[in-house]
Design a protein that fits this description.
Length: 280
């Protein structure tokens, strides 16, 4: 009987030896991908929890003030850029970089480091590309898990937030795309046999991004000639005319949008056009 018991224990031990057991990481990794400008931003970092420990204080257990911090846990925090951006006036070409920081009471030093393959604590200032300072804000509510997030996404700007405990740090990011897109649209629009949909794309660009309302109106007008039942084009045309101060034309095209959208049974555009009419 004892031999059978021992055999069973040996078999159980052997089975456990081959078992695949996945234990949750203490500081799980997160990867964020954000479309931005004419490229993408990809951030990979580990997210430690406070668990009752102090952070961002003199000699605190976590990320003490005045000392280089890996900006997360485990491996170095990585920022991948696919199109050139500016960080506080510093140009950063496409590539993958490490982000280190030095927390301070009123401001932080952000460090962009070219060595993104080392472990997070293997920091060398010799690999720094540049440093810059940003303000540190105090928040009312405490963030238990270290969080990085892209916010306020605009065509040429966004912010990278670093939040933990009662601290929120905003890193401004800028890209320059208007001149490049303008050149591309001008070249495409000057070609023979222009696709009518290109006029609408150009109108959106000149209205939303470049803020060149005259060019926007020229292109949306050409787009509506080729698509006389495109209610969404007439709503854009009305918005452009309002921006140019031509309320009479904006009213007529908004009403045209309501008519066409009603025929197409599109409540969203009916509502949008009516809101525009109320604003005139």
């Amino acid at each position: 009987m004892k031999k059978i018991v021992f055999a069973s224990i040996a078999l159980l031990t052997m089975q456990l030896g081959f078992a695949q057991i996945k234990v949750p990481a203490a500081s799980p990794t997160e990867t964020i991908t954000q479309d931005f400008g004419m490229g993408k931003l990809e951030l990979t970092y580990s997210r430690p929890n406070l668990r009752g420990r102090s952070v961002f204080k003199d000699n605190s257990e976590l990320a003490p003030l005045g000392k280089v911090w890996r900006t997360g846990a485990n491996a170095s925090t990585k920022l991948k850029v696919t199109d050139q951006i500016d960080l506080a006036g510093n140009k950063l070409d496409s590539g993958t970089y490490a982000i280190f920081t030095i927390p301070g009471k009123k401001e932080w030093t952000i460090i962009i480091n070219k060595d993104s393959k080392n472990w997070g604590t293997d920091y060398s200032a010799n690999d720094d590309l540049f440093r810059f300072n940003v303000p540190a804000e105090t928040t009312k509510e405490s963030m238990e898990t270290f969080t990085m997030q892209f916010t306020n996404i605009q065509p040429e700007s966004c912010e990278l937030h670093l939040m933990w405990g009662n601290v929120d740090v905003k890193v401004p990011i800028i890209t320059h795309i208007v001149s490049r897109l303008n050149e591309q649209f001008e070249k495409a629009l000057s070609a023979d046999n222009v696709n009518p949909n290109l006029y609408f794309a150009a109108a959106n660009f000149y209205y939303d991004i470049a803020k060149d309302y005259n060019k926007a109106l020229t292109n949306v007008t050409k787009a509506t000639y080729s698509n006389p039942k495109a209610y969404y084009m007439f709503l854009l045309k009305a918005k452009i005319e309002k921006a140019l101060g031509d309320k009479a034309s904006a009213k007529a095209d908004a009403e045209k949008c309501v008519q066409l959208a009603t025929e197409a049974k599109n409540d969203d555009y009916i509502r949008g056009a009516n809101m525009l009419l109320k604003s005139l």
